[in-house]
Amino acid sequence: MKVAIAGAGSVGTAIAGDLHAAGHEVLLIERDPDLVARQRHDLDVTWVVADACEVASLDAAGLATVDVVVAATGDDEDNLVVSLLAKQEFAVPRVVARVNHPKNQWLFTESWGVDVSVSTPQLLTALVEEAVSVGSLVRLLRFEGGNAHLVEVTLADDSPADGVSVVDLGVPRDATIVAVVRNDHLIVPRGDTRLAAGDEVLVLITADAEDEVQRLLVGP
Question: Is pLDDT larger for residue 65 or for residue 41?
């Protein structure tokens, strides 16, 4: 997989290093030549000194050949511009954008070319909630501009799903139970998988199905 990352700050270089270590081809775009000069010998990826907000720079960098673009700068406006150009000008299949300020989260949608947005503050909040909450839906990740979510719920003792198999649960068409964690072990759920109190249930849902999933797993 070929990945282009806009922004060589701490976030961008960390992502680049991990993806390179996993065997992916990485293109790191940074407009500050001094920053590139300081870091390029520490990270064995393809470096491009350019402004990722300019179409000509992205074209010269070969953005049309990448599979994924990660907009990882420290500026939300830049990340939105990079995302929009990647999707509309170069038809990049997958665009992931970093959200620096949670108040701007609503902008990171498909209208701006964003397939997946990642807000560190919101993600940390979700992980804290996931660790301490029982009997409530916790949103972990959002997709399709917020129209779909990966949610987690730890089934309480009085959950209506306790003792019910997945096939009998009646999960709506716009939701899928993707994983169950029980006693620190991952279970890939099948139709005959029976849920139990204390299970951590991960569900991929659309906004339309959220209320129904909550009713099934948490209760009214």
Answer: 65
The tokens describing 90, both together, are 């170069």
Q: Any idea what the Cα angle at residue 101 is, between residues 98 and 104, rounded to 5°?
A: 85
Tell me, yes or no, whether 128 lies in a domain. Answer: no
Query: Sign of torsion, CA 45 49 50 56?
Result: negative
Looking at the whole model, is its pTM more than 0.70? no
Closest C-alpha to 159, from 200, 213, 197: 197
Q: How far apart are CA 25 and CA 125, in angstroms?
A: 32
Same-domain pairing of 88 and 51: yes
* Count of all residues that appear for the chain in the document: 220
Q: Of 71, 70, 52, 74, which is closest to residue 61 (Cα–Cα)?
A: 52
Mean pLDDT of the chain, nearest integer: 89
CA-to-CA distance for 28 and 9, rounded, in angstroms?
10
- Total domains in the chain come to 2
Task: List pLDDT tens digits, range 129-143.
Answer: 555 566 777 777 777
Report if residue 144 sits inside a domain: yes
How many Å is the Cα radius of gyration of the chain? 20
Residues 53 and 156 placed together within one structural domain of the fold = no
